[in-house]
Design brief:
Layout: E1 4-8, H1 15-24, E2 28-33, H2 36-43, E3 49-53, H3 59-67, E4 71-74, H4 81-91, E5 94-97, H5 103-106, H6 109-114, E6 118-120, H7 129-143, E7 147-159, H8 177-182, E8 187-191, E9 194-198, E10 208-212, E11 215-221, H9 228-231, E12 239-247, H10 250-259, E13 267-268, E14 271-273, H11 275-283, H12 290-298, H13 305-313, E15 321-323, E16 326-327, H14 328-339, E17 348-359, E18 364-374, H15 382-399, E19 407-409, H16 414-426, E20 432-438
């Protein structure tokens, strides 16, 4: 009898997993979304698919949908995974998602083990492909008697070069607020064997220029890298940092936006306002000579690239807009969503690179492992493919009884990452590995 998979969420990254499971398995799929039309479009008339409307707070319906499945994929916001996990535990169903393991999710580890269930998390892009590709190299080095002394891993979702046509070097396919809020996070990593803490206000003063395949980028630390010393089996490592990758110059723009108060939850009353009004409100700058006052506040010339980028975005625009009550950060997010969206046929790009220093008794190896992946014009984005396809492969392997693990897991075991990475290669998602030997 064919297995049944419940996919919760029919958003921006859902299509590749649905298409993959229809194409490569005989599984039946139920796709549930708060908007049933989204689910219906995602199934696209496949006879093995069924669309459902679902509010996760409708416990009775969620219980029925979970009980009718063999495995549940949650593509919902991570804050809802706990609700889904409780239903999966009660119905004794496996669960898969692409989000970081939260403290709440970790509490399901022991009860899931007791029931013989696998709750596989962090099996997307970052986290996900980054874990798997890193562990492949780490295990190889260790199997050859080497020790990883330095590990830097960076990842970014960016416009492809042919779509990189605005002064921010960035585009959004969903609300930018999450990206803006991420700039308020602190970070910590290991440097020279000691934990280095970066407070939120210093985050974008801590960027590192990087050249990858001849292209100029910059990276900044991503939250807490220190836990991966244990997760990856790198105890005693000298340098360990996971970072976010952007095109060069991004940090100057974010520093300016933060300095102008544009990432604050400051209230903007309902009424007719221009973006120039909102900028004056957030920055405290003189409304009558706004551009001059902003340049002075940022200690820049009016024709500086940062000022020109802010002008291009529309922050000095005098056009009045009828706004309902909002906040400064939400108004900025709306503006970015309008001006920095992908247009039809444009490609996004995912860049992921690991850099290792591995020491052996006879030599040192400098290892790089690099992924460039591009969206398909008028088709799936690279972000959707790289998040969703690892999930899809894992679902197939679990339901084919090829992953014999229990409890809350992430993909750092060979039984997961070896077959997933091999299949990703066949789907065009592959790393270029290079090694430099130093005696």
């Amino acid at each position: 009898m064919a297995k049944h998979v419940l996919i919760l969420g029919a958003g921006l990254v859902s299509q590749p997993i649905i298409d993959y499971l229809f194409k490569t398995t005989d599984f039946n799929l139920t796709v549930a979304d708060i908007l049933e039309e989204n689910a219906r479009q995602a199934i696209n008339g496949n006879p093995r698919g069924k669309a459902a409307v679902l509010d996760v707070n409708n416990s009775e319906l969620l219980t029925r949908l979970v009980s009718e499945s063999d495995l549940v994929v949650s593509l919902l916001p991570y804050t809802l995974h706990g609700i889904i996990a409780r239903h999966c535990l009660a119905a004794e169903k496996h669960m898969v998602n692409a989000s970081y393991v939260s403290e709440e999710m970790q509490t399901f580890d022991e009860p899931a083990r007791e029931k013989g269930l696998l709750f596989l998390c962090e099996i997307g892009l970052d986290p996900g492909i980054d874990h798997m590709s890193a562990m492949k190299i780490i295990r190889d080095v260790q199997s050859r008697g080497g020790k990883i002394t330095e590990f830097v891993s960076v990842c970014g979702g960016l416009p492809a070069p042919d779509a990189n046509d605005n002064p921010f070097g960035y585009k959004f396919s969903w609300s930018p607020k999450g990206v803006l809020l991420a700039g308020n996070n602190s970070a910590q990593y290991i440097d020279q064997g000691a934990i280095k803490n970066i407070p939120a206000e210093k985050l974008f003063h801590s960027t590192t220029p990087m050249t990858i395949d001849g292209r100029e980028f910059e990276a900044y630390p991503n939250r807490d890298s220190t836990s991966y010393e244990e997760v990856y089996g790198l105890e005693g490592i000298d340098l360990l940092m996971r970072g976010t990758l952007r095109y060069a110059g991004w940090h100057n723009l974010i520093l300016a936006i933060k300095a102008l108060g544009l990432t604050e939850e400051l209230a903007v009353p309902a009424g007719k306002h221009s973006y120039a009004d909102i900028l004056a409100l957030s920055s405290g700058c003189d409304r009558e000579a706004l551009k001059t006052a902003v340049a002075n506040k940022l200690d820049l010339e009016q024709d500086a690239s940062v000022m020109l980028a802010l002008d291009w975005l529309g922050l000095f625009d005098e056009t009045l807009i009828d706004l309902s009550e909002t906040t400064v950060i939400d108004a900025l997010a709306d503006l970015m969503n309008e001006k920095m969206a992908y247009t039809a046929g444009e490609r996004d790009m995912v860049v992921l690179q690991h850099q290792f220093t591995a020491t052996f008794p006879e030599a040192t190896e400098k290892i790089s492992s690099t992924l460039f992946d591009y969206g398909i014009p008028h088709g799936d984005s690279s972000m959707a493919r790289t998040v969703s396809l690892p999930l899809a492969i894992a679902v197939r392997l679990i339901l084919e009884d090829k992953i014999d693990l229990k409890g809350v897991q992430i993909p750092v075991e060979p039984i997961i990452y070896e077959p997933v990475l091999e299949e990703l290669k066949t789907l065009g998602i592959a790393f270029d590995e290079k090694t430099e030997y130093i005696k």
